[in-house]
Each structure stands twice: as structure tokens, then as C-alpha cells.
Amino acid sequence: MDSESQVDNKNTASLFYFALAIILCIAGSSLISIAWVGNYLEAKRISVAGALILVTGLTIFFYSLQKLISRKVIIVPETLPTNSASISQLQTQLIELESRLEHVPIALFTINPASKEVTATNGNARRLIAPGRSSNLEQLYSQLQAQVAGRRSMILFETERGLERALVAANDISLHGVQQTMVALMPVESELQLEAQNAWLKLIHVLTHEIMNSLTPVSSLSRTAQELLADSKANLNEMDFADLNTALDAIHRRARGLVEFVSSYRSLSNIPAAKPETVSINDLLGRLYALSIASWSARGGKINVSCEPSSLCAVFDPNQLEQALINLIKNAEEATAQVPQAELSIHAKLSRGNRLRIEISDNGPGVPEELIPQIFTPFFSTKERGSGIGLALVRQLIQGNGGSVRYAQRVQGGAQFIITL
Prior knowledge:
The protein has 421 residues and is α+β, with helices and mostly antiparallel strands. Helices cover 52% and strands 20% of the residues.
């Protein structure tokens, strides 16, 4: 029997007792009245019987009244389900809502305004604060606590991959009468880098196409003009011939140099898709050591290579990662050209979150702090004759394999690049 039927039964019983009490009170009062008014021999007995019936009726009346006063009345809202089918449907909807919240593609946190305690609400939030992602939880939490409800902002927080940007929005909510702040965080560093990279690639593609179309005829025509000038040498005085020949040769050489320069940028926009395979990191570093040690030893330098553990393997395109590492080794060699005892260190290990981490460090002068944000930008170079494609190509190769590369300041000086895959 459900709660509604039980309430109906209790109400019926109460009405019955009330009716019985009223009847008994009326009967008792009537008998007493008859006894007092009439002139019967049995008047005293009738009065006693009426009094007993009246007392019984009053007792039942007050007993029923006490029961009604002490009874707890539960009001069930009409919106609350009252049958098992409705309750089951409500439970299903609750499970679906929890599942969507758990897998929503943003990190959700709740903050207690009184204690400032930050709690991860869904799976993305828990993964963000797990080992392998955020490396400075205090910094992240302090930025979340500083958010103002109803506003959006961009924050920077430290991760194993370096500084990452994220879009943050906050709102005040009330749960079970407790005021809380809900903060939504969406990391956008990878998306911003990818958009910037795609923009540069489109620009490079257009520039190289248009410049090549213009320079190739210039180089060809200048060479043809030199040949025609040689055929007409007999008709020109020696000074005029020398001046014209020098001018045409300069045009030809400069045009050819520009063609070669522009061709080098085509490598940025023509990188093939990665072909990942399982690679032994120890073997990969061994090949890089064999390729580089001769030039470093020739100037008194040394290379230190280590892999922990030696059996470490990872999945990526070996040719593309090898090319990226060669570019970084070449940069280190040029940066330490004036260092008496140049030293290069390449160390591979597993970082938090079971990710491959390769650190390439040298004891050169390092990169000035104000230039660090620009070193991976195409066309930017700190060298006098640098093309500005070396580090841009490194980043593109690493990102094409699902990884990231960043520059890190070393306490002991020098440059350090960290690759995470």
C-alpha cells in the first residue's frame, strides 16, 4: 500500500471516531435531560448511565483530537513522481546528466567562497590537475580563485609542456542553500599555436609562389643577356662591356640567391604527414651521437647522451623527430662556437603522465628573455645571416607527431629545449 492510501485510511478512521464521539455525547446528554425532566422511578440510574455515555463520548472526542494534532502531515508536491516508473525515469535522466557533465570538453571546478577550497568537478578537471599536466597547482588555483563571476578572461598556467593559455569563465550558483562559484576552464594553447602556424604556412605558400614566379625569369633573362653581351663584345669598348657584364652578373647571382632562399621556405609548407612507428629511443640517440660527435670533438667540445631506461620506446615518425633533433643540435653547435669547452647534453626519459620527454641543453649564451616568445616564429632569427626557419620547422615537425617543444631558461646558463611526445 502506498503513502497516499495510508493517508486516506487514517483520515477515514479519524472521521469515524469523531462521529462516534458526537453520537455518544448527544445520547448521554439526552438521557441526563430525560432523567431530570421526567418523573420516573429509575431516574437516578438513567442519569448515571447518561453521564457514563457522555464521559465516554468526550474521552473519544479528545483522544481523536490529540491524534490529529500530533500527526505529521507530509505535503507531496505534484511534480514529485509517485510511482516506480516515474522514479526510474528520473534516475535515468540524472545518470545521463552526470555522464554529460563528466565528459563535457572543458574543465569544471567549484570554489567555496568561504574556505576558497577548489574542487575538480568533472573528468577534464581531474586530468588537468593530475601528474603530467599542470606542474604548479597553487598558481592555477590562485588564478581560479581570483576569477570574477560573470566575466571571461585569459590565464597562463604552467604545465609539463610549458606555459599554456586558457579561457576561463565563472558564475555564482547555489546548491542545497550553499553559495558556490562554478569556474569553467578551456585550454586553448594548442589551438592558438595551430592557428598561428596555419596562418604562417598560408602566407609562406603565397609568398614563395609569387616570388618564385617573378625571380625565375629574372635569373634566366640575366644569364641570357650575359651571353648576348659576350657575342657583342667586339662592338663595345672594353669599359662599357665590363660594366654591363658586372651588372648582369650581379643581377643573375642575386636572383639565383633569392630563388634558393625562397626555396628553403617551401620546406615549411610541404612537410609530409607523419608515419608513426615504435622507435627505440636509445638507438635514435645513438645515431644522432654518431652524426654529431666528429664536429664537436674537432673543436674540443663533447656530447653527453643518456636514456632512462635504456629500453625506452615511443611511437612517432623517426625521420621527422630525427630531423628536428638535428636542427636543435645544429643550433647548439652554432650557439657555442665561441665557447672554449662547448658541451651538449641530450637526455631522454619518461615524464609524468607517461609521456616521452627529451631535453637538449648546451652551455652557450642562451636566448635573451625578451626574444624567447618569438624564436619559433617563421622568418625570425637571432643570427646575422639566419633564415628563421630552423626552429619553426622543429615546432612543425614535433606538432605533426602530436607533441610540443618549448624553450626553458637554465639556472646555470645556456639554452635548453624540451620536447614532449
